Amino acid sequence: MFSNNNSQYISVIKYQNQIKIDYKLLNQDEITSSNQSSFLLKKEYMPEDVVFKLNNWQKESNHTFLATICDNLEQIIIKKDDLSHDDDYNIVPLNPTFNVGIKNSVLFEDVHYFDKTGLDFLYSPFHILNLHVEQNPSGNNLLILLVDNHLYLLILNENSEIVYSSIKTLTSFEDIKHTEFYESEVVGQKLFDEVYYFEIQNLIQSVISEFYEMKNDVFIEKIVILYTSKQLNDEQILTLQNDLLIPIKYHPISIDESLFELSKESLTTSKSFIQARKKTKATKSSSWMILTILTTLIAASLVYYFIYEAKDSATVKKEEMIFEKLNSIKKAQKDEKNNNIVSKKEEVATTSEILLPNHIIKNRDVEKRLLTLFDLVPYDVLLKEITLKADESNLEATFLKDDIYIKSMQAPLSKLYEYSEIKFENNEATILNATIFNHQRVPEKEVHKVVLPKYIKDEFLPQERVYEQLKAIFPQNGIIKFQSSFKSDVLTYNYTINIIVGSPLEFFEIIEDINKELYSMNISYPVMLRKTIDGIEVEFNFQFHQKN
Question: How far apart are CA 336 and CA 422, in angstroms?
C-alpha cells in the first residue's frame, strides 16, 4: 500500500478531550521516521492547529494517507448474508464470516469532521478487535476493547469465531465533574476511579449473564481487556478476577499501530468505510522546501517543552502555536513601545487619581520570562519543571549529554541573570537529571509603561464576589485559596492558584484572558510549572486590586 518513496501515514484519533496523532514516514514500506503528539479538544470541530499540522504534512508528499476510527454506539456486527440493514448502515467486511456496519448519519459526521484535511481510511473499533483475534487466536474468550468511555465486546467460541457482540458505555470523568459529589480535581479523580472499577465489574457480569441466557454451548474461559490508557491497577484486576471467577488478562493495545496494519492491507480487503482519496502529483517550489526545513527546525527546538517521550501517547504539544505565541508577544511589546507607551512622569501629570497597578504589564512580564526560558531549552533537554521568582528561576530537567548546559544554555542564560549554575543529581548515570539555578535577574535596559487600562470605577467587590470572578476566569479544575489582604490607598487580596493545563500554550491563553479583564488583577511570583501524569500543574500567587 505504502510502497512509494516517502509515503506518509497519519492516524488521527478523536477522544472526548483530546486528539492524538501518530505520524510515520515510510520509504518502500519501511518506517524511517515517526512521532506522536496530542492536542486538547475543546470544541466539536477540528482545532485549527491540528488542521495546520496535518495539511503541512500533506503538502510534503502526494502519498499521504490519513486514517481514523469511528467511536460511537451506532455500530453492528452481522452475518455476510444478512441484508436487512443495508438501507440504514454503511457495511464493510470484518472477516470472512461477518460484516460490520456504521449508521449512515454517524458516518457522515465522522467524514465531515475531516473536511479541512481530507480522510482516506475509516474503521470500526471492531476492526481493531478482529485484527487482534487474527494475530492472537484463542477460543472461548470474552474480548473487550476500551476506547475512551466505550467498551467494545466480542465473545468467541472454541474456534475463535464471533458468537456475541455489543457496545457498552462507562461514566466519563466529565460526567463526574457535573455531579454534586465533585469537590475538587483530587476528590473527583478518586470518585471516578471507584465508579470506573464498579462499572467495569457490573458491565462484564451483565454481558456474561446475557450471553449465557442466549447460548449454552460456549463457556467463557478467559477475559481479555485491551486498553489504550491504563485505569485499573494490578490489585483491582486480581480482585475483579476473584469476583468473576474467570482469569483476566489486562494489557495495552496500540490503536495507532492497528490502524496502520489495517490501512496497509485496505486495497485488497476493502475494510475501510470510505475510499482512499486519489493521489495527485505534487509540486514543490524551492521556497516551500525552505519553509518546511525552517518549520522542522523550529519544531525540533520546541518539542521538548515539558517533554513527554516521543512515543508517549499522552504528549500534549503545540509547537507551531507556541512559536507563533512567542512572536506575537514580541510584536505586542514592540507596538506598545512605538504607539501606546507613556512614561511614568506623563501618567502622573495627566491625573491626580489613585492609580491601580497595571495588571497587563505584570502579567506580560511573567509570560515573556517563561517564553524566553522555553526558547533557550535545546531539543536534547527534557524539561520537567520551572520555578520562576521575582529575581531568579530554577529549571529541573533531564540532560542527554553532560555538556549541553555549557555549550547551549549558559551563554543565553547569562544575558538574563548575573549568576547561573547547574547541579547534577548523579554524575555516573547515562541520562542525567539536573537543576539549573539562576540568580539576580538582569534588569531590562528600557522599562516602559503601558497606558493604564480603563478599569471599572465606583464598584467595590467584597471578597466573595472576587472569588466568583476568579472562578469564572480559571479552569474548573482550578484550586483558588485566599491567603491575605492588604490595605493602603489600594486594597489588595492575595490568593494562591493551582490549575492543570494540557500545554504551556493553554496557560498563556489564560494570561491573555486575564489581560482583557477590566479589573486590576495579576499573576505574582513565585510561578511554578511542573509535568505530571494529568498534564502540566501550574501554581502561582495572584493579586486582585481595587480602590479602598
Answer: 36
d(CA 48, CA 161): 43
Q: Residue 380 is which amino acid?
A: D
Backbone angles phi, psi at 69, to 5 degrees: -120, 160
Q: SS3 of 539, please?
A: strand
Q: How many CB atoms lie within 10 A of CB 412?
A: 14
Q: Specify whether the CB–CB gap between 400 and 386 falls below 8 A.
A: no
Span 149-195, pLDDT tens digits: 899 999 999 998 999 999 999 888 777 766 656 566 666 677 788 88
Distance separating alpha carbons of residues 320 and 517, to the nearest angstrom = 27
User: Which residue has cell 494562591?
Assistant: 496
Say which residues have a Cβ less than 8 Å from residue 170's Cβ, sequence separation at least 6. 149, 150, 151, 196, 199, 200, 203
Instruction: Measure the CA angle with vertex 385, ends 381 and 389; round to 5°.
Output: 120
CA angle at 178 for the pair 225 and 42, rounded to the nearest 5°: 75
Give CA separation, 444 vs 180, 183, 258, 329, 340, in Å: 50, 43, 53, 16, 19
CATH 3.40.190.10 fits 7-269, yes or no: no
What are the Cα distances from residue 361, in Å, to 23, 93, 329, 417, 452?
40, 61, 12, 20, 10
Predicted TM-score (pTM) of this structure? 0.53
| Residues 191-247 pLDDT 10s | 788 888 899 999 999 999 999 888 778 899 999 999 988 888 888 999 999 998 999
Residue type at 463? Q
The domain locations on the chain are: 7-269, 300-547
Q: What stretch of H or E contains 476?
A: none
Helix ranges (H only) for 42-141 are: 48-60, 104-112, 125-135
Q: Tell me how far apart the alpha carbons of residues 191 and 185 are, in angstroms, rounded to a whole number.
A: 10
Sheet containing strand 150-156, strands side by side? 162-169, 150-156, 141-147, 222-227, 248-252
Q: At what angle do helices 48-60 and 319-338 cross, to 10 degrees?
A: 110
Query: Rounded to the nearest 5 degrees, what angle is found at the Cα of 437, between the Cα atoms of 432 and 438?
Result: 140
HSE-CB for 474 with a 13 A CA cutoff: 25
Of 393, 373, 395, 382, the closest CA to residue 432 belongs to: 382
